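User: Reviewer 2 asked us to show a designed sequence for the structure in our supplementary figure. I'm pasting the structure tokens here. Could you produce the per-position amino acids so we can include them in the response letter?
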């Protein structure tokens, strides 16, 4: 599997693309969340190391099939309109979640589950931002890079890229910039 595969507004997956290495993420947030096997392996390692620090995280969303993204997109268009949807919800085929390499992380604390923007600047969030690369993950939609990624800041959305994560982290670039600058 190509861990650097680029899926964004300009690079869509086909309707029939399904990764062949999906496994159950074993998440306590929800049953039957699937992710790529390498994501599972590395996320578990990261979550366990965080646990030693007293942090408790899990995966709240992993692989999403094309049809599901289509429903999500149409519902958002209906409920929130085009402007919001354009910055926040990927069109069907354009969601990284279809690769099985993207995860949305939630934080458990004080018997509550924190999701999406609620995790922003929590200790767990700060730790993730600075350490996730050690496990092959990058913060995929960082603050200040909205014009490059095409998405609003999403502190909860991480993408598995493997070893390259370290280079991406220390150069403070997005996957788009990395592929553009370093892989020509
Ligand atoms: Zn996500």
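Assistant: Here is a per-position design you can include in the supplement:
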């Amino acid at each position: 599997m190509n861990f650097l595969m680029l899926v964004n507004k300009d690079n869509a997956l086909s309707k029939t693309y399904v990764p062949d290495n999906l496994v159950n993420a074993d998440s306590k947030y929800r049953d039957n969340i699937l992710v790529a096997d390498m994501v599972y392996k590395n996320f578990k390692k990261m979550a366990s190391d965080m646990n030693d620090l007293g942090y408790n995280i899990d995966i709240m969303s992993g692989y999403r099939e094309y049809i599901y993204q289509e429903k999500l997109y149409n519902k958002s268009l209906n409920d929130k309109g085009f402007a919001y949807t354009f910055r926040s919800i990927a069109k069907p085929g354009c969601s990284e979640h279809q690769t099985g390499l993207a995860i949305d992380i939630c934080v458990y604390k004080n018997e509550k589950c924190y999701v999406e923007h609620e995790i922003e600047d929590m200790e767990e969030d700060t730790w993730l931002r600075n350490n996730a690369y050690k496990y092959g993950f990058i913060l995929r939609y960082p603050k200040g890079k909205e014009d490059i990624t095409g998405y609003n800041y999403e502190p909860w959305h991480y993408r598995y890229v493997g070893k390259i994560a370290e280079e991406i982290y220390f150069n403070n670039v997005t996957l788009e910039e990395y592929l553009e600058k370093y892989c020509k």
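For the response letter, you might also mention the following. The first helix runs from residue 37 to 52. The chain has one domain: 22-182.
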